[in-house]
Amino acid sequence: MGLKKAFESLLRMGDPGRPRGEDPVSMVLLLKESHFPKLAQLREAAGRAFGASFSGDRSSRHSVYQRGVIFTLANVGPHTLSFLYQTMPYADNSERAREFEKTLLRVDQRQAWAEHSAYMAIDYVQGDVDIDSKYVVLARLCAQLYDTNCVALYLPRECALVPGDTAARQQMNKIIAYRSVDVT
User: Fold this and answer.
1) Is the model's pLDDT at 122 over the cut of 60?
2) Continuous segment of H or E residues that includes residue 150
3) Structural domain span for residue 137
């Protein structure tokens, strides 16, 4: 079974005709509160996810570091990820957000969307692998970062929202199990 089928099993919503190539490959953790991990916590999570020691040295193949005041990046072998922290709901007060909210069919989806007040987006920004492998890298890290402050996992490119701890973890584990991705 490919990741395409796994994504189809996600709680899908949104405009099915919208071109998927416009959005970055990203996983967004919708949060109850504006509580974000510190660099040391990100390094520890990356270490657990990828079985390597992560430093703060941006020239290292395994590192989590800040560039300037607002950019947090991670080198995961040949893959580069970026982190975005926002202290407001995802797509707050935009027309797209209001339209998206109307497509939420399940009560638990609507509840998670209404309950979140902040988010952490992790984007795959560089690496020469296919889209499925990009999602595997993201899922490995997000599975380590998903905690009690998280109310849902959102995949913007796939227009999918998976609420709750159990369902989100199951989906991330399906993605992780899909294939092995080199992070050396």
Assistant:
1) yes
2) strand 150-155
3) 3-14+22-178
Task: Compute the average pLDDT of residues 71-78.
Answer: 96
Q: How many domains does the chain have?
A: 1
Q: Which residue has the tokens 């007040």?
A: 117
Length in residues, the chain = 184
Q: CATH code at 152?
A: 3.30.1400
Asked whether residue 116 is domain-assigned, the answer is: yes
35 is a domain residue: yes
For every residue of 20-82, DSSP letters joined together read: GGGS-SEEEEEESSS----HHHHHHHHHHHHTS--BS-TTSSEEEEEETTTEEEEEETTEEEE
Residue 142 lies inside a defined structural domain of this protein = yes
Tens of pLDDT, residues 123-163: 999 999 999 999 999 999 999 999 999 999 999 999 899 99
Give dist(CA 23, CA 19) in Å, integer: 8
Q: Is residue 183 part of a domain?
A: no
Q: How far are the Cα atoms of 71, 75, 176 from residue 168, in angstroms, in the given order?
A: 26, 24, 12
Ramachandran sector of residue 159 (left: φ over 0; alpha: ψ -120 to 50; beta: rest): left
Closest CA to 13 of 146, 109, 142: 109
Confidence at residue 11, expressed as pLDDT on a 0 to 100 scale? 47
